Amino acid sequence: MTATVDPRRLRFGQFEFQPTARVLLADDAPLVLGSRAFDVLSVLVEQRARVVSKNELLDRVWPTAVVEENTLQVHVSALRKLLGAAAITTVSGHGYRFTAAVEGEPSAGFGGAVAQSTPTRHNLPAPRNRFIGRGAALDQCENLLLQHARLLTLTGIGGCGKTRMALQLAERLLPSFADGVWFIDLAPWQAPQHVAAALANAIGVREEAGTPTLERLAAHLGQVTTLLVLDNCEHLIDAVSELVDTLLASCPWLKVVTTSRQSLGLKGEQIFPVPPLTLPDAADLVAVQDCESVRLFVDRAASVHPGFHIDAGNAAPVTAICLQLDGTALAIELAAARTRMLSVTQINERLADRFKFLVGASHALPRHQTLQATLHWSHDSLSPQEQQLFRELAVFAGGCTLAAATQVSAASDASDASDEYRVLALLTRLHDKSLLVVDHRAQMPARYRMLETVRQYAQQRLDESGAAAAVRDRHLVHFLALSEQASTQLQGPQQGMWMSDLAADQDNLLAAHDWCLRGAREPESGLRLFACLWRYWVASGQLERGHALADAALAGAPQSVASSWHGRASWAAGQIAFRMGRYAESLAHADTGLRIAVTQGDAEQVAANLGLRAKGLQSTGRAREALLQYEQACAVARTLENTAWLGNALNNLAELHRGEGNLGCAQTCYEEAIGIARRRQSPEGIFVPLCNLARLSLSSGDSQRAQSLLLESLELASGAELKGMGEDVLEVAAGLASERRQFDQAARFAGAALARMRESGSQREPVDEAFVAPFLDRACSALGQAEFNAAQAEGGVWGHEVAILQVRRWLEAECAC
Question: What is the value of pTM for the model shown?
């Protein structure tokens, strides 16, 4: 057999390097080389045409860990002992370069052909600490500049890390600009006329009497291949734009990187928003350690608190700190500096008052000493109209749409369509000044949000303005209207879309609920909001939250008035209480709702509360009384134009028949309920009786029909975002698997169902408990208690998405058999 040749191999002196095979040979004999040392050598050989900074080596060789610089030095020293001191050269203040002569290439030594293209002229300041993360962003920027962009502007809020990223990018690009890379910090300069002078001073262009500075700069830079890095341009944006525009037009080999809180607005400008440091999105310690924001926190904390490291004991508060601070570099560094005096738990607890707590060194630039200072500067640079909308947007939690932003704007007139365009123009300017983030969603309206630190600052300014109550009232009006529209749409063909929209605005809905309790002008607003949204809390599997909102809304309502909204909220509260197994509480709510509905002459609510009372009576063992209430509910519902109430009543009546063993009557009622819901195109209206009919089919011994019904139920639940209905799918799947004698699968599905119930706070109804118990008893007897428990525990850790995927795959496999 012929040996495979490593296509990337290369020889230098007596050595042969084979990176693909991870082999280093000396005189054709393999050398013993540690894994990390091999990685260091790989990076240096791969990038042999340039100097590789120490920070880049640390990030590429140890991407998931924070290590000391001397660890790198140890590995480089070991490589030099092995390869010879001349193989790797130290470039003072910058890093290392592989300089051994590679066969077939010009000499890489500093006197050779390759070295002649390596710039030695620059004024980049030596970094005082490690640059953490943003490898992908740097790669993108490097590619943009080397391929086509001549002007790259790094934008972002103050403290996001624009300057450090620009310096790191410049260091990477040193080999690509033969005539130098020059860094100019414009922060100390205040007068527009000083911009050209600051640049001339930095690159060494001398004054000449009678010749304007800009003209001399153009003459000099027009003859060289140079990169300019202009930092902190926002306060001199017009002067910088004019200078850069002139130089790019007359200097064909010039490229420019600028950092600014807003773009220069020039033709051909490539804008690159500096992303926040990546945030932890998993509880796993390794995943947390790998995240950029955590790595920065640990690195900076270790500089003031030697020995600081992240472990299982402090991972949770460090994660919380990074999440609260949105991955903003300056904020994380200021928080990490506090580890000298406080524990990470204490730091996390104090971030609610972050503007007073996170204070930097007094010798820093004034607008970089505190988070508040960075935001003061940005706010003061806004026009009065921009400042007003900036303050008003603070009322939104989790962002908003253009329609919502227009609604809260005090200067808007709901009857004037042009106001939306005015607000859009202001939003655009706030975004261009890095005070807003735009989130784009496929086939959905764009959303505008502030980073939490920015929002808290805007909230302070809103409170100081005296207009906070009025803005919150307008916010509430918008979300009340949205909720009332959702209350009907959540029972129709667009249910999935509306579930997604409400999920996007959930934090706003909770903020609106909170304002209902604290200061809203309309006393019944809390009742309206809850009564319209109860289906969302149930369908999304948030029963505990829905129950708490119900209690708060009912407790905060005027006790002297029994309005229709009070009645609807009582009925909705009873529905949630019923799903949580709080049957006495559910009955009490139904009694209140029924009394109000009769007083108001509201036939829909009469039918609804009769059905709710009947469910409570059935679940507490009073089947005869329940049957009378169900029949009465059906009779009232048949008189209504809205057939949803009849479908609900028929499904509930069928549940009673199923529980009593009257399977034929139950099937008739289920099928009529399903037919009504299909005509209404209501996913949830179809799902509930359909899943119940699958239970009935399985109990009747028709597993094939149960499988078909379960598949349809699964598709409905997935398409309509009915996360709260996942436990029903899993429960029927457990019964079906047991019927098919796949007992371990039955136990796993049962464990997943129990986990979903614990998450949502729901409790299995007695009729459903009676359905599933025999199937699980059969599985437990077949497997043995220990094996059954182990399989159930396995399903219990799946999580909702994984559990539903497992059911889908299992059903597809069953259908294929």
Answer: 0.76
